[in-house]
Amino acid sequence: MLVLVVAVLAALAIYESGRGWTGVGLEVFKAELAQVRAELTAKDAELGLARQQVDAAHSALQIEKASQEQLAARIRTLEAENARLREDVLVFESLAGGAYAGIQPGFKINRFAVEPDSVPGRFRYRMLILRQGGRVEAETKGSYQLLATIDRNGQGATIQYPAEGNPAASRIAFKHFQRVEGVFQLPADSRLVSIEVRFLQDGQIRAKASASL
To answer: What is the pLDDT at residue 203?
Structure first.
């Protein structure tokens, strides 16, 4: 009986000891797991912040790139406008200096230029129509027309701008000179081969010019 009691007491002692160690191990594991989860949460937050910074930097680069492109386009536009203004100055200096004195009265088209626009098949044009020679007392009234020679699928054709049914769109009135600017659209699947501009009075051609493409 004594031996049996000792054995039972030893077994209980071993059981309690084992349960205590097991409880300690579980609490340690729980603490480690909580710490790892906390570290994971912190790393997730850090990663999210880093991604936001990368996105912000990328957006800033895109904005900066777009701003640089807009600035470069603006510079090109200003350079082109300055070049046209310099040409205007030369023309007007010639007029003011009497360079046309003694010249037979008439008209002239200067600086006729045609350039592709941002829209496919659309072109921009500009020109300066001058009245030269003789005394200018009355206002000049007339109109202009563009004659575009095109190639469309191997077939040639000539198109008039503005359209013949809309003559008012091309009427102009001036005393010494007139700047003219505008756009025209080619038909789909067509290519501009050549273009000529004419200044007319009472149906008569007074001046004409061609533009290089």
So the answer is: 85
